[in-house]
Each structure stands twice: as C-alpha cells, then as structure tokens.
Amino acid sequence: MVDQILQSNGLIKEFPTGGLSIGKNKGRPSKKRILDGITFDLPKGLSLALLGPNGSGKTTLLKTLSTIYSPDGGGATVCGYDIVSEIKEVRKRISFVTPSMDFQKKLTLKQTLDFFVKVTGGDMALAKDFIEELQLDHLWNTKLETFSEGQKAITRLCVGLQKNPEILFADEVTNGIDFRRKQVVLDFLEKQGRERTLVLVDHDPEVVDVLCDKILLIALGGTVRGMVDVAELHSKFNYMYDIMVIPKGTVTKKEVKDIWSRYEMIGGMCRFFASNREEATEIHERVIKWGNFIDIKTSGISIEDITLMWLKKHEDELEERLQEDRKKAKEAELARAAKKKKATNKRRKKAG
Ligand SMILES: Nc1ncnc2c1ncn2[C@@H]1O[C@H](COP(=O)(O)OP(=O)(O)O)[C@@H](O)[C@H]1O
Ligand SMILES: [Mg+2]
C-alpha cells in the first residue's frame, strides 16, 4: 500500500539557456537550474498548494511531477510510481490543467469533452455533474469560440476532471471564474477531496484555504523553503481580509466598534478584519449603512503573507526539518546508486 501519494527526492530540472558554457564544461550548451533539489512527501488523502514568488519554479515543478518534463536529477514518485521508469502508470492516474491549454474553437463543449473522454478513457458523467452543478447546461451545445475567460477556465477543469484522476495538478486555473461560480467549483472539488488529491498553484487565498491541507513554500532558485499546515496557519492568524475605511472627519472608537468588533484605528483610518468573504461582505454592508466615509477598500491578506509571517516565527524548527529532508534525499540517492551497482555486478557475473 502506498501511504505517500507524492514523494520527491532531490528533484532537479534544468533548461538550456541557448548559450555555451565557460569553465569546466567549456563549449557545451549552458543550462540554468530551475529546480534545485526539491524534496518533500505528501501523505495520501491530503492536498497541496505550491506557494512562491514568480519564477521560483512552481509551474516547472507541476510539469515535472506531471511527466511533461523529465527531471535532470533526483527522482519522484506519483501515486507510488516512478515519474521516469513508470511514466505510463503515472499518466494513467493524473490530470494536469493549465490556462495555456487551448481548444478547437469551432467545437461545442460537448464535442470537446467527447473527444477527451475518448482519448483518455474518461467518464463523461463526472464532467456532466460538474457542468450541471454550475448551472451551465446551456453551454453544452455552444461553440467554445463564444466562451468567456471564466467559462474557458471551467472547460479546462472539466477536461481535467473527466479523467477521474487520482491527482489533479492545477496551475492557476481558477483565475477568471466569477465569485459565485468559484464557490460552486470549490464545493465540488472539496466534496471529492478524500478521493482526489489536488496539487495546485492559485493566487486566491480562499482556494488554498478551502482545498489544501499543506503548503509547500518554494524559494527563488527552486528550493524548498518549508512545508506548512494550513490549519496551523489559521490557528495562528485567523483573518483573511482587511477592510480599510477612510472616515469623513473624526470618528469615535465606539462608532467603529459598533460596526465590527475586530478593528484597529491607524492615523485617521479604520481597519476591520474579516475571517472570510461573508464577513467581509457583512462589514461592507454595515459601513455603507453607516455612511460616514470617503473611501472603503478591501484586500485579501494573501495566504502567502501569512505563510511568511509564520515562517519567520519558525526558522530554527524549519532549518532542522530541511536538514533532515536533505539527509533523507542523500540516503535515497545512495541507496539507488548501490542498487544500480549491485544490478551491474550481477549482470557482469552472469555475462562473464
Ligand atoms: N521551457 C522553458 N525553457 C527555459 N526556461 C524556462 C522554461 N520554463 C520555465 N523557464 C524558466 O524557469 C523559471 C521558473 O519558471 P516557472 O516554473 O514558470 O515559475 P513560476 O511558475 O513559479 O512562476 C523562470 O525563470 C522561467 O523563465
Ligand atoms: Mg507559474
């Protein structure tokens, strides 16, 4: 039985720069290392979000685990299968969804899904359920050329889902889906949470919050910065939205407190804290009813900000864990090398 749905041991990915190397490898095509020894485990039944600055290698990691790119070092298993030597087994069990996935514009949604169901041996019923829950049945016989960005995003998710994958890798796929439909998408994916692992990159803190159990923080240079529990983050920082209000003239503390009890007054401004979107909407409504303001702005406190705050508090503990992971990766590498050597010796003995 596999108890880890994902296991990455010192995964390395490099891309050619287009130039030539100098120094030791003089004259050979030069390479840039994008993933520099990514090591982590994800237990079965849990879902993961990748977080990190632009260019840190999140998409490259998703593509390498999805077998679109082959690694240049280290290794990984997906659903218990090796991403290089058991590539077919891996591909049977996963879907990879990305906004760069494009379709034949002249085909209808139904024709598009029919095609993918045939090619991947998928399940049309699952795709149909998804479209029905979203109340988008009217799109079934509509050509994709008329679809909005949000509808295209839904189509991509649908293509990923119809395969009924054990792992759905999704790279920023909820962008463009309107607020109400996003809630339905989240509900749908959350309901399936136990059967399906999600590994995703998403800028909406709510998506990560609702769908993921763990966050893998990736640093520039393609290294792991740490793995964090979403529940743990929330027990430490239980707010997600920040509503800034500029009042007309002066206001009393009581006035502000009557609007919402979790508040702060900075300079002449009031700041309210909400734990979720419903609370943020409620605060908005109350401020508007109160009416004594010039401006109101809501911003999501990104889960990335919260993660970074959390990381600062746990530097030492994380360093220990990272060292342990590195040691484990080294041991796994040595074990692989020893196994290879043993096999070679055996072959030699047999031959000679
Ligand atoms: N196919 C490729 N060829 C060469 N360089 C690439 C390729 N794909 C990504 N890169 C480079 O790898 C780095 C990481 O990219 P990416 O994985 O897309 O990061 P992220 O998704 O975290 O923003 C970037 O510097 C990018 O330019
Ligand atoms: Mg990316």
What are the defining features of this structure?
six-stranded mixed beta sheet, Alpha-Beta Plaits, four-stranded antiparallel beta sheet, 2 domains, Rossmann fold, 352 residues, 42% helix, binds adenosine-5'-diphosphate, alpha/beta, binds magnesium ion, 12 helices
Total E-strand runs: 14
Q: Treating each run of at least 4 consecutive H or I residues as one helix, how many helices?
A: 12
Walk across the major sheet and give the strand order.
6-7-8-3-9-10
End-to-end separation in angstroms reads 39 Å
What is the H level of CATH, i.e. the homologous superfamily of the largest domain? Answer: P-loop containing nucleotide triphosphate hydrolases
Any low-confidence stretches, pLDDT <50, length ≥5?
Answer: none
Radius of gyration: 24 Å
Structural class: alpha/beta
Q: Output the CATH class name of the largest domain.
A: Alpha Beta
- Do you know the CATH topology of the largest domain? Rossmann fold
Tally of discrete structural domains = 2
Shape: globular
Helix content estimate: 40-55%
Average of the residue pLDDT scores: 89
Strand/helix succession? EEEHEEHEHHHEHEHEEHEHEEHEHH
* CATH-derived architecture of the largest domain: 3-Layer(aba) Sandwich
Major sheet: 6 strands, mixed
Strand content: 25-35%
Enumerate the distinct ligands.
adenosine-5'-diphosphate, magnesium ion
